[in-house]
Specification:
213 residues, alpha+beta, 4 strands, single chain
Length: 213
């Protein structure tokens, strides 16, 4: 079973590295490098802002995002994406993807696969918030998640579907309600979610080694 898990980790890692390389190539081809933002701008009206991680990470925006956001909001979004790149959050997520694919019947593996990405988004929010403040980032999240049609009901559904509501709640809390130990707890929870199933897999092998049949 350990070999099964290791095989999935290798497969997911190779697949992810190849996809990141492909994404960087596509970005270099279709996007323009904006030196003033140190980001790559896609010629589309869609609202796009993301990071292609790796040793040569790409911060990608769209023309629609540049037209939509005010300067402080844009800086907050850029700070959020750079936090993903600098923190190599893609590497943090890899083991949880592999664990969920290797053992999809484990509830802890499925939960970790769903929860860890949200925790990583919150950690990136915290990095951006410390530099650019809560309100610019919160306004940017709302603007990016609200559909272009302007329907308030559709906007609420979009926010709920993307998990932005929980991020906004954290950003808009007062400093007294936002303890500084939250990032450490987030990393600890992620580690526990991963270590539990792995310990279950390792325990039988240890028993065989310590008490050979």
């Amino acid at each position: 079973m350990l070999a099964w898990l290791l095989a999935h980790i290798i497969r997911v890692t190779v697949k992810t590295i190849a996809e990141q390389r492909r994404q960087r190539l596509l970005v270099d081809i279709v996007a323009d490098h904006a030196l003033d933002h140190d980001a790559y701008v896609l010629p589309t009206a869609e609202r796009v802002a993301y990071c292609v991680p790796g040793r040569r990470a790409r911060i990608v925006l769209s023309r629609g995002t540049l037209d939509l956001l005010e300067r402080q909001e844009l800086l907050a979004v850029l700070g959020h994406e750079r936090a993903h790149a600098q923190g190599r959050h893609d590497l943090v997520l890899l083991p949880f993807i592999a664990l969920a694919e290797a053992f999809p019947w484990l509830a802890a593996a499925r939960t970790a696969r769903q929860v860890v990405p949200v925790l990583l988004e919150m950690l990136a929010d915290d990095r951006s918030r410390r530099v650019h403040g809560e309100l610019p980032l919160a306004r940017a999240l709302v603007r990016m998640a609200t559909p272009r049609t302007g329907s308030s009901e559709a906007g609420v559904l979009a926010l709920a579907d993307t998990g932005v509501v929980h991020r906004l709640e954290r950003l808009l809390r007062s400093p007294e309600e936002r303890p500084g130990w939250i990032p450490a707890v987030a990393y600890s929870i992620a580690s526990l979610l991963l270590s539990g199933p792995v310990a279950v897999l390792v325990a039988p092998l240890l028993c065989v080694v310590i008490w050979p049949v």
